[in-house]
Amino acid sequence: MSGQIRILVADDHPLMRSGIAAEINAEPDMSVVASAGDGEEALTLFRAQRPDVSLIDLRMPKMNGLDLLSAIRADFPGARVIILTTSSGDVHAIRAFRLGAAGYLLKHMLRGDLVTTIRDIHAGKRRIPDEVAQLLAQHAVDEHMTPREIDVLNKVALGRSNKIIGSELSISEHTVKAHLKTILAKLGASDRTHAVTIAMRRGFLDTQQ
């Protein structure tokens, strides 16, 4: 129908996609014009359909939500994209907005906020959940984690010892210990397990759902 907000939904869970589509299609001013189960399919459908607003899951096979967002915005700078996620981590949110996301929506908020968020984004506004905004403010002055520190932390999350981490990253065991000391300080963690827990919650480590 003319004047409707045309929407693409990308999520690797069929029930989530169908639930979102049902809620959207029940509204007289919007409709789902494309539905994708992975990032590569979503990019192909975006190029074919040129939707007004895209709802993109943060974690998907073949191409994750942030890589998809980056690819879309590279070719279509005016694209309006809302990232969907179960994680309120501030790091993911920062990355999403730096890449050009217009909105960030937690999945537990979909029932109450989905339609309003779509209309706001279509109208040129930006939307970020209060709980994510509070985390962003809380960590605004935190020291950034370096790529090497994140490499080390990823290895720790896999259960590697300092010696094995050093071997796999081609650095000395002493250097690994130094990185871990800095990581604990930056995250306010009491030990390496605590550091992994904090890093996962905030979005420093990529974990699959």
What can you tell me about this protein's structure?
This protein folds into two domains: 5-138, Response regulator (Rossmann fold); 147-202, Arc Repressor Mutant, subunit A (Orthogonal Bundle), CATH 1.10.10. The protein has a five-stranded parallel β-sheet with strand order 2-1-3-4-5, sandwiched between helices. The chain has helices spanning 14-25, 39-49, 65-75, 90-98, 110-122, 130-138, 147-157, 162-169, 173-187, 192-202; strands spanning 5-10, 30-36, 53-57, 81-85, 103-106. It has ten helices and five strands. 33% of the residues are buried. With 209 residues, the protein is α/β, with parallel strands linked by helices. The mean pLDDT is 86. It is elongated, with a radius of gyration of 19 Å. The longest helix has 15 residues, at 173-187.
